[in-house]
Design brief:
This protein is an alpha/beta fold and about 260 residues long. About 35% of the residues lie in helices and about 20% in strands. It contains ten helices and eight strands. It has helices at about 40-55, 75-95, 115-120, 125-130, 170-175, 185-190, 195-200, 210-215, 225, 240-255; strands at about 5-10, 65-70, 100-110, 140-145, 150, 155-165, 180-185, 260-265. Strands 1, 2, 3, 4, 5, 6, 7 and 8 form an eight-stranded mixed β-sheet that branches. The structure holds zinc ion. Zinc ion binds near residues 7, 9, 196, 200 and 206.
């Protein structure tokens, strides 16, 4: 598969981010400041360069998207309260932008754990497909919840989302192939992994992958804002910025509209 980009969350016990130098997947905004310094000029260039990718007319109504949850090796009933809590908070985070609705909750069996499936996927193996391809449903986000484990002291994988790096049109063409994401039970329980992975699903990058100009566009120029942002690691994350929400909604409108997204009444 071309242009595949894998995203993972590694949570360590400390509040220190592992910095990765990488090219951002892009940003969008629909306003340009009047006065322009170096940062602002860079910002304008950024807006221009991503305009074709991300610009779309923002629908003022709220989008509605269904999520299927696939629970691996645990009783569905034990996870329903956690799913409900996640959805409530998710809808609070995305209020006025996207509304998420639980569609199905289904139990699956697998002898593997999240890091094994992820590593196998990186290696071109079939474990992820064997678990998820048959059951992934067109028109929905399909979330697979699995056990994880500590691979090295203090470090666990809590999720991953297969993404195209620069082929957003492909999502509709291969759906539901790229509508499958994985999170750990722990990540779901502590309410960070699903929000983070959905951020990736709707085009957001990690803050440390962004230039200063891109952070400015996304409202992440303040270190405190960056620290608590759901796309960060190892901090007490609790929010998306308004600009990130706008970008995610624009991306959903343009590239994920096959999800059965409809404007709310
Ligand atoms: Zn991530």
């Amino acid at each position: 598969m071309r242009y595949i980009c894998l995203i993972l969350i590694i949570i360590t016990t400390s509040c220190k981010s592992s910095k990765i130098s990488n090219k951002s997947s892009g940003n969008a905004s629909h306003t340009v400041p009047a006065g322009c310094g170096v940062d602002c000029m860079a910002q304008n260039e950024l807006l221009k360069s991503f305009e074709n990718i991300f610009y779309t007319k923002i629908d003022s109504s709220q989008l509605q998207i269904g999520i299927n949850f696939f629970i691996v090796n645990r009783e569905i009933e034990s996870q329903l309260p956690t799913i409900q809590t996640n959805l409530l908070e998710l809808n609070s985070l995305f209020e006025g932008s996207i509304e998420f609705r639980k569609h199905k909750v289904i139990r699956l069996e697998s002898k593997y754990k999240l890091p094994t499936v992820y590593q196998d996927y990186l290696d071109g193996g079939q474990l992820f497909d064997e678990l998820s391809r048959e059951v992934a449903e067109l028109g929905y986000i399909n979330v697979f919840v699995m056990e994880t484990l500590e691979e090295t002291p203090g470090r666990k994988l809590h999720g991953f989302t297969p993404l195209y790096n620069d082929y957003h049109e492909g999502y509709a063409k291969v759906a539901p192939e790229m509508d499958r994401l994985m999170v750990s039970f722990e990540g779901l329980e502590f309410k960070y992994s699903l929000y983070h992975e959905l951020g990736h699903y709707f085009s957001l990058a990690h803050p440390w992958e962004l230039s200063e100009a891109q952070k400015l566009v996304l409202g992440l120029q303040d270190p405190q804002e960056e620290c608590v942002n759901h796309m960060n690691y190892n901090c007490f994350v609790n929010k998306f910025t308004q600009q990130q929400l706008i970008q995610m909604k624009a991306f959903a409108n343009r590239y994920r509209s096959y999800l059965g997204i409809r404007g709310a009444d």
